[in-house]
Amino acid sequence: MKIREEKGAAYAPQSGVMYNEAFDDFVFLGCRLEIPVARVGKTLDEVLSEVRKLAKRGVTPDELERARAQLVASAQSAQSDNGYWLEAVLADAQERPARLESARTLTTGYAGISKAEIDALAARLLAESNCLRFSFLPAAAVAKTP
User: Fold this and answer.
1) For residues 132, 137, 143 and 146, what is the CA-based torsion angle, rounded to 10 degrees?
2) CB 55 within 8 Å of CB 123
3) Regarding beta strands 14-20 and 23-32, do their DSSP bridges make them parallel or antiparallel, or are they unpaired?
4) Cα(125)–Cα(133) distance, rounded to whole angstroms?
5) Which domains does the chain have, with CATH numbers?
6) What pLDDT was estimated at residue 134?
7) Are 119 and 80 in contact (CB under 8 A)?
8) What does the pLDDT read at residue 32?
9) How far apart are CA 133 and CA 42, in angstroms?
10) Which of 23, 46, 52, 91 stands the most exposed, by the fewest C-beta atoms within 10 Å?
């Protein structure tokens, strides 16, 4: 948000998370920014600075509430869609019966997430030793780089 709203450095930043049900410590958090080539290094430094702050201080109550509200609304929307039930829950329910219980508690689970839980996750997952930064540049920009 800071990169987009305060600095105007990116028009439509994106973020996402991927995890593996089999491995608790296998989590990928990422962000994607389309920015001018001249700002790549500075913007990467700014993103890493924000990640460090989040790992150290955790989330603010406002950040948590906005994220929680979005997750709950998304879960409620998904649960009213047949595709969610067929693809995310029932497709392999015999092999993974825990998915049925997860589906039943999805909304209440998101609603019950505490600041302490998120802060602990942020401290663990956003440790600098876990961060990898990279950029994709146009060939012409790479050719100009010493």
Assistant:
1) -30
2) yes
3) antiparallel
4) 15
5) 2-144 (3.30.830.10)
6) 84
7) no
8) 86
9) 12
10) 23
Q: What is each CA distance from 3 to 7, 16, 27, in whole angstroms? A: 5, 16, 24
The number of residues in the chain equals: 146
pLDDT per residue as tens digits for the range 111-143: 999 999 999 999 999 998 988 888 888 888 766
The pLDDT tens digits of the residues spanning 34-56 come to: 888 888 888 889 889 999 999 99
Task: Check: CB of residue 9 under 8 Å from CB of residue 39.
Answer: yes
Of 47, 30, 27, nearest in space to 124 by CA? 27
Q: What are phi and psi of 22, to 5 degrees?
A: -80, -25
Residue 79 corresponds to which tokens in the numbers above? 């649960």
- For the cut 70, the answer to whether the pLDDT of residue 83 exceeds it is yes
Report the percent of the chain where pLDDT is more than 90.
50
Place of tokens 């603010």: 60
